[in-house]
Design a protein that fits this description.
Elements: E1 5-11, E2 29-30, E3 33-34, H1 35-44, E4 50-55, H2 59-66, E5 74-77, H3 84-89, E6 101-106, H4 114-127, E7 131-137, E8 146-149, E9 155-159, H5 166-169, E10 173-182, H6 183-190, H7 206-213, E11 218-222, H8 235-252
Length: 253
């Protein structure tokens, strides 16, 4: 890794399907550690210049927990929550004097390893890409955005399940929601994305189409173990991920 790195962790969501309105989704624990804590710890292993956590629902609880990391990170408030694109754009002021790459992580993906992110960063820098997406191959990709590549292996687009043709739905390579961007190119594109629905939500994935329209290179590299990019949206998924942590701990002991 040769270029400076800043990390944005998106952690503002309510987590409606966790069935607990008293707790932010990212504060649900895995073996005693809130999932946001596991994501922050992984991010700090990368030695970034900045770590910014975007908080929203039950933010006081999340901010209080994050104080243990002291000066190593900042929080930015997203209220109301109007999509991943808006969440990312809110960090621009904190990064005004930063020049380098921006890694975007999800606060509810706690299995991700720093080695996989270093692979993503190195691939991004080697290809001098405007953006690089961490992807995975899934036997059952239903529900995920599919990665559409051109004949040279570069990313043409991300097609969401609801918009995919029958042929595109057969693609097994999916978008993990984890990206690395060149800073200036990212924030310029974020200013150009348009809301999708009556809630005026702005989606981070839309910057990919803007990059392609500007003939900028978008790359993708696959994580070796697709389990790493599992997100947690339900209590059942939380239980499944905790089991994976227990198995991993048993293997390493």
């Amino acid at each position: 890794m040769t270029t400076q790195l800043a990390v944005i962790i998106l952690a503002a969501g309510k987590g409606t399907r966790m069935n607990n309105t008293e707790k932010a989704k990212v504060m649900f624990e895995i073996l005693g550690i809130p999932m946001i804590g596991r994501v922050v710890e992984m991010a700090l292993k990368l030695n970034p210049q900045k770590v910014i956590v975007v908080v929203g629902y039950q933010r006081e609880m999340v901010q209080e927990y994050l104080t243990q990391f002291n000066h190593q990170l900042k929080t930015v408030i997203q209220d109301p929550q109007l999509g991943t694109g808006q969440a990312t754009s809110l960090t621009e002021t904190e990064l005004i004097n930063f020049n380098g790459n921006i890694l975007v992580l999800a606060g509810d993906v706690p299995l991700l390893l720093s080695s996989s992110i270093l692979q993503l960063i190195n691939y991004h820098e080697q290809n001098k890409s405007a953006a690089t997406i961490l992807t995975a191959n899934l036997d059952n990709p239903f529900g995920y955005g599919r990665i559409i590549r051109d004949k040279n292996g570069n990313v043409n687009s991300i097609v969401e399940e609801k918009d995919a043709t029958e042929e595109e739905k057969k693609i097994n390579e999916i978008n993990s929601g984890i990206y690395i961007f060149q800073k200036d190119i990212l924030f310029d594109a974020l200013k150009k994305i348009k809301p999708h629905n009556s809630q005026k939500e702005l989606y981070l994935t839309d910057v990919i189409a803007i990059f392609k329209n500007q003939n900028l290179q978008v790359s993708a590299t696959q994580v070796k173990d697709s389990m790493e990019i599992l997100g947690i949206n339900t209590v059942d998924q939380l239980i499944d991920v905790e089991k994976l942590f227990i198995e991993k701990n048993e293997k390493s002991s």
